[in-house]
Amino acid sequence: MNGSADAQIFWQVLLERHPRRRRFTLPEILDAFRQGFPHRQGDTDMRAVLARWLDELGRMGVIRLPSKANRRAYDHSERTTLPRHVIRSDAQPPDTPSTIIWRPELAFAADLGGALQKELQAIQQWLKHEGGIAAPVALRERSVEIFGDEKRLDSLLGTQLFASGRLTLELLRCYVPSVPIYVVFDASDGVRRPILAVENHTTFDTLCRWNEKAHRYAAVAYGAGAAFIATCASLRLHLTRSECSGQVLYFGDLDPKGLWIPTRAAQDSGIDVRPEEHLYMLLLEKGRNHLPPAKEPFSYEPLLLHWLPESLGKAVELHFSKGRRLAQEWVSLPDLLVLH
After folding, report:
1. Is the Cα dihedral 289, 291, 292, 298 positive or negative?
2. What are the helix and strand counts (H, E) for the chain?
3. Number of Cβ within a 10 Å radius of residue 320
4. What range does the domain containing 288 cover?
5. What is the 3 state secondary structure string of 231-285?
6. Mind listing the pLDDT tens digit for each residue in 30-65?
7. Dihedral (CA of 21, 54, 63, 154) sign
8. How far apart, in whole angstroms, are the C-alpha atoms of residue 106 and residue 116?
């Protein structure tokens, strides 16, 4: 199959969920997307990405898309149109590999069909020659060694290859380097306060400006989305400062990915990252006053809601059940005045 790795994974998930279907409806297509790429739930370009993958699969002869001239065959409810159904083609991928005897660590490869066979075979070769005796190195250094491409492993993280029970960084003897996080400290007045980490740049800037006058946090740190998973560990140095209470609070978008980032960061760093309840309460309040449109329910790991206090978790669960995400940018500078 000569398509992108993500398009191949999406196709395999769709087949695994509906192996006997010849016609896939849009709800089934969206369900396969959620199952195969849970970390992308809430992305603003989700439909555009899915449309691109469907076009790739159509060019490969794996599926047949409806005619563009048939407007009724497409869903126009959002900016990016998607087909209301696609038809599975009789054509088989030209490069479906013959049966491969996989190493025990890669036994799951048989479940992926033809998806990512090139990458899996490269990993198999590396394990055969290096495996457990290799010295641990940084992720991109290992990626160059295995694939000749320093960014290939980056692009595979979060895909089905790294689902539970499959590939791990430990198996590949590599790690994500911890880099310094951008932190803005408030002037010290002798009071010990927590550090607040913020997912997105706009809200980071807003909270820095507000904190200059409110003095609610010892410092505000820019999480930079999923990069916070790698940078969280570097907060340890800042937590030892005299003005810090030793506590890390977090504020991000209310969608599955926005909850996954701090929970994964805490897991990887060993730092207790807790939600900034007051900010999430403000965000939920804005959501009640400016309710975003309902979409397909989110597919997510229910344990993510356990990171939030029970009262907030129930409200967020309701939003998720209706496919609603609340971007942290809803909380603006005037809203923060109620916390002063």
Report:
1. positive
2. 13, 12
3. 23
4. 182-339
5. HHHHHHHHHCCCCEEEEEEEECCECHHHHHHHHHHHHHHCCCEEECHHHHHHHHH
6. 888 888 787 776 677 888 889 999 998 888 888 889
7. negative
8. 12
Q: Which amino acid is at 27?
A: P
Q: Give how far Cα 223 sits from Cα of 111, 171, 263, Å.
A: 36, 27, 13
Residues 199 and 275 in one domain: yes
Rounded CA-CA distance 292/273 in Å is 28
**pLDDT, tens digit (0-9, with 9 covering 90-100), for 223-248:** 988 789 889 998 998 998 989 999 99
Residues 300 and 154 in one domain: no
Q: Where are the beta strands (DSSP E) in the chain?
A: 23-25, 63-64, 74-75, 82-83, 85-88, 137-138, 174-175, 182-185, 193-198, 219-222, 244-251, 273-275
Distance separating alpha carbons of residues 175 and 98, to the nearest angstrom: 33
Q: Give dist(CA 76, CA 83) in Å, integer.
A: 9
Place of tokens 């491969």: 100
Give the other-Cβ count within 10 Å of 133's Cβ: 7
Say what the pTM is: 0.54
Shared domain for 165 and 52, answered yes or no, is: no
Q: What is the C-alpha to C-alpha distance for residues 95 and 1, in angstroms, rounded to an integer?
A: 6
CA 224-155-103 angle, to 5 degrees, is 135
Instruction: Return the half-sphere exposure (C-beta side, CA atoms, 13 A cut-off) of residue 222.
Output: 15
Is residue 219 domain-shared with residue 328, that is, in the same domain? yes
User: Is 98 part of any domain?
Assistant: no
Tens digits of per-residue pLDDT, 179-220?
A: 678 999 987 777 899 999 999 999 999 999 999 999 999 999
